[in-house]
From TrEMBL:
Ranges where the record places region Disordered: 31-105
Pathway of action: Cell wall biogenesis; peptidoglycan biosynthesis
Organism annotation: Micromonospora profundi
Active-site annotation: H250, C266
Signal sequence, start to end: 1-25
The protein's name: L,D-transpeptidase family protein
Pfam families: PG_binding_1 (PF01471), YkuD (PF03734)
Length: 296
């Protein structure tokens, strides 16, 4: 009887030690962040994305079944072929759709016609059908004239700008000797001549809005400043070239193609065009404005 009691006392601690070791093993696998076993199992799903293989871990106790060879190999074998076969299909389709070109706008044929007339934007086919070449040409045009978004779609703004530029007649500006800045108020375009020859192709502008009409006539640049401050409107006027009544050429800080607004008589320019006209102009440069902005 004494021997049996001694043996039972020795076996009992061994059982306790083995059970305790098993419990400590589950805690680290479940995250070790506290809060029990259910939450850590969910965290493992978010990281691995394999909700099917994390089932045994969520239960906690049936751990011995999870490490066996059969569940591991079958779980690994089945998911792999499915993602491998399904992944290439969308990956291959997406680039094909993008390579086809851009969305086709409601003014496709007209924009193609104007771009072909203007030249310099790449080959376009005047057929009213969007193509990769048309898309590239329209994007280049939109980028050059500050049209947003640059997506290659022949929408209303792209159509309007292309039409205004293509129908601008540089010879309408009666230029004399030297450099002349010309503004077509009707088409809202501006260009530069030197001794009667175009040295800056027609580009877009925005002049005075209703109540602040920019007047037509012949003037001359009489004051220049790389960065002028406007006292009444408290705004900087980059590349300022004044020609009459507080009006002048300058870069605009707003979206040039927003027709709902306009200047207070000044000739607004895109950055690149303001810089170019600053380089070409000087005090005494002739300024000729013809026509009248619609609605003013």
């Amino acid at each position: 009887m004494k021997r049996f009691r001694i043996t039972s006392r020795l076996v009992a601690p061994l059982v306790v030690v083995l059970v305790g070791t098993g419990a400590c093993t589950f805690d680290p696998q479940s995250g070790g962040g506290g809060g029990g076993g259910a939450a850590p199992a969910g965290a493992a799903e978010q990281v691995t994305g394999a909700s099917g293989t994390s089932g045994p871990d969520q239960r906690g106790r049936p751990t011995p079944a999870a490490p066996t060879a059969e569940p591991t190999s079958s779980a690994t074998t089945k998911p792999k072929p499915k993602p491998t076969r399904s992944t290439p299909a969308p990956t291959t389709a997406a680039p094909t759709a993008r390579a086809a070109g851009c969305p086709q706008g409601e003014h496709q044929r007209a924009v193609e016609t104007y771009l072909a007339q203007l030249g310099g934007f790449g080959p376009v086919a005047v057929d009213g059908q969007q193509s990769a070449a048309d898309c590239a040409a329209i994007k280049k045009f939109q980028k050059r004239y500050g049209i947003r978004p640059v997506e290659g779609r022949a929408g209303p703004t792209t159509f309007d700008v292309a039409k205004r530029l293509a129908t601008t007649d540089p010879t309408r500006c009666k230029a004399g000797a030297g450099t002349t800045f010309c503004v077509d108020l009707t088409r809202q375009t501006v260009w530069a001549l030197r001794n009667g020859k175009v040295i800056m192709e027609p580009t877009v502008t925005r002049t005075g809005m209703s109540g602040y009409r920019t007047p037509s006539g012949t003037y001359a640049v009489n004051y220049r400043n790389p960065k002028e401050w406007s006292n009444p409107y408290e705004v900087w006027l980059p590349y300022w070239q004044h020609f009459t009544q507080g009006m002048g050429f300058h870069e605009t800080t707003t979206y040039l193609h927003d027709k709902s607004i306009g200047s207070h008589g000044c000739v607004n320019l895109l950055h690149a065009d303001a810089v170019r006209m600053w380089e070409l102009g000087k005090v005494g440069t002739r300024v000729v404005l013809v026509g009248r902005r619609p609605g003013t």
